[in-house]
């Protein structure tokens, strides 16, 4: 009886599999929002220079800032910093040497954020990302103002239909212009992102947390009365005050002011609720900042 050979198939870990050669960068934050750059050449330079393959005309970007290299033999794609002044960041970590890109990685160069997409159908992935940009803020990765306003309309309708409570907290970073002027706009972006990630971990699934303006955030609390909303606002204020915001080896003191309004069924529409919370936010700032007014 002839012996049969046993064939062993090795299933590689997902992280070890080569990247599909079809890949692109999509701008999800910064100038030319939504623009797609197909990575067709084996080397692609990103920088401020007019000769760069992907030009970003910002002071915080070096002339030749970073380079993407595509290895056709292995189908792997790497990014490397080219000795830039402000560094190249992938998924909030500054890269040292070469970094192998994976589908979905976020690349920050200066104040621009790219999302790296790879796979068999780049166009489908690109259109999915463009749709996502209609609801999400590219920098903070929380909801944007457009989504918040749509959610507010939905929750007000529910509030009226079922007689439920609805509260709104508006949050503003104290002296944010001073942070930008003192530490630079890259540090300001870092503060916005870290604040968003800090607050996001402490809210309920049904709450809507969004970037409402430049340094202003909105937190919509369905089925929460004024007392519960005030407790949440004070908890958020203390959380941010205690948080260590660090950028480029510097600690940045950050506090917030908060304005709170609660809607009773049939009492206000969305604009009136926002106006009421904004008035309380103004009062918090006028009375010394780093406080909650309700």
Describe this structure as you would to a colleague.
- With 294 residues, the chain is α+β, with helices and mostly antiparallel strands.
- The strands form four sheets. It has a six-stranded antiparallel beta sheet with strand order 2-1-11-10-7-8, covered by helices on one side. A five-stranded mixed beta sheet has the order 4-3-5-6-9, with no helix packed on it. The chain has a five-stranded mixed beta sheet with strand order 13-14-12-17-18.
- α3 crosses α4.
How would you sum up this structure in a few lines?
This protein is an alpha+beta fold and 294 residues long. The chain has helices at 122-133, 145-162, 176-183, 185-200, 226-242, 270-286, and strands at residues 23-29, 36-38, 43-47, 54-55, 66-71, 76-81, 88-90, 93-94, 98-100, 106-109, 112-118, 166-173, 208-211, 216-222, 245-247, 250-252, 256-263, 292-293. It is globular and about 65 Å long.
Overall number of strands: 18
| SSE pattern | EEEEEEEEEEEHHEHHEEHEEEHE
Mean pLDDT: 91
Residue fraction in strands: 25-35%
Question: How many H/I helices?
Answer: 6
Shape: globular
- Main pleated sheet: 6 strands, antiparallel
- Biggest sheet: strand arrangement: 2-1-11-10-7-8
Oligomer: single chain
Q: CA-to-CA gap between the ends?
A: 87 Å
Uncertain residue segments: 6-20
Structural class by SSE content: alpha+beta
- Give helix % range: 25-40%
